[in-house]
Amino acid sequence: MTHGNVTLIGVGRLGICSALVFEKAGYNVLGVDLFPDYVNAINNKTFDSPEPQVNEFLKESKNFRCSTDMKEGIEFSDLLFICVDTPSTGGDRHYDHSKLSRVLSVINSFKPENKHVMIMCTVMPGYIREVGRYLLRDCKNTTLNYNPEFIAQGAIMKGFQNPDVVLIGAENDEIGNRLSEFYKNITTNEPYIAVMNPESAELMKISLNCFITTKIAYANMIGDIADLTPGADKYKILEAIGHDSRVGLKCLMPGWSFGGPCFPRDNRALLGYAEKIGFDAKISRATDQENNDHTRIMAEKYLAENKDEYEFVNIAYKEPCNVPIIEESAKLKVAEYLARHGKKVVLKDKKHIIEVARREYGSLFTYVEI
């Protein structure tokens, strides 16, 4: 016996993880996606993911299947979770909501009633109020809610099951309470469940990531200052700062600049949204600049070593990372800087990560699979 039915629209890199965690917790899950071959691979359990635990969860699943039929997905459950891409656009200061808007429009075309729609992908503050609710205008007694996840690539399954916080931007108290109970079933720890209206949740989502990026940029700034201070030990300094209970040690060690598919774009998106409403988000602007400056400082330090050959191991946007995501990898930015200055640069990583780097950079580097 399951807890009930759940529909998840968009079974991509993040969506399949959500679906499998929902199923693992005892829900009967129907995933909806556009691509028949992909859907068949999931249903046949031949789909292979580099994300840890996905293949294991898929093979063990008994109440998860996929379909290309949106009508079937809408009729399957009154809980409809949407997990599609919202890539950066507008000079990286906004999100492209086109895929999400198309999904909402398709749902509206069926004019379903008594549904609860949850947006799991990151959106700009104001999207639900200004756009989303209009796109579901023909759906009677249907709520539109914001329920994004705070996960890290390479540890998505763990992030879903053991989050620090669950964010629920609920249209009303009824769905807020229902989703709170839903996530008590999903999570294996006891996270803080933050229920607020969708407008607050939209802003909270990017604000949290921006606080983390500011903390990382601050740590690297102190590290760079310490490197220029005779006798100063940046690690000891930041470790001591982090032991103050008002600060904390997480994300406070000096190292590479932040990168990846979330942190840089969320920081710029908050800056873009602030400009839209007439506010100058100086801290977000400074964080982005400090992050870029730190990458430049590291690149110049490496170049000053004047080696004929440089080697970089684990080239994804963070380490350790098993998934082939090199987006805004600070390590690769430094490697590219050195290669453009005539140095031989060797990149070493797992085969699937090296393949992505080779497609992106071609003959600029020497590649070694490990």
From TrEMBL:
- What cellular component terms from Gene Ontology apply here? nucleus
Q: Which residues form the UDP-glucose/GDP-mannose dehydrogenase dimerisation domain?
A: 199-292
* Molecular function via GO: NAD binding; oxidoreductase activity, acting on the CH-CH group of donors, NAD or NADP as acceptor; oxidoreductase activity, acting on the CH-OH group of donors, NAD or NADP as acceptor
Using the record's annotation, list all stretches that form the UDP-glucose/GDP-mannose dehydrogenase N-terminal domain: 5-181
Q: Which InterPro entries match?
A: 6-PGluconate_DH-like_C_sf, NAD(P)-bd_dom_sf, UDP-Glc/GDP-Man, UDP-Glc/GDP-Man_DH_dimer, UDP-Glc/GDP-Man_DH_N, UDP_ManNAc/GlcNAc_DH
Give GO terms for biological process: glycosaminoglycan biosynthetic process; polysaccharide biosynthetic process
Judging by the UniProt lineage, the source's domain of life is: Eukaryota
Looking up Pfam families in the UniProt record yields:
UDPG_MGDP_dh (PF00984), UDPG_MGDP_dh_N (PF03721)
Member of which family? Belongs to the UDP-glucose/GDP-mannose dehydrogenase family.
Name this polypeptide is given:
UDP-glucose/GDP-mannose dehydrogenase, putative
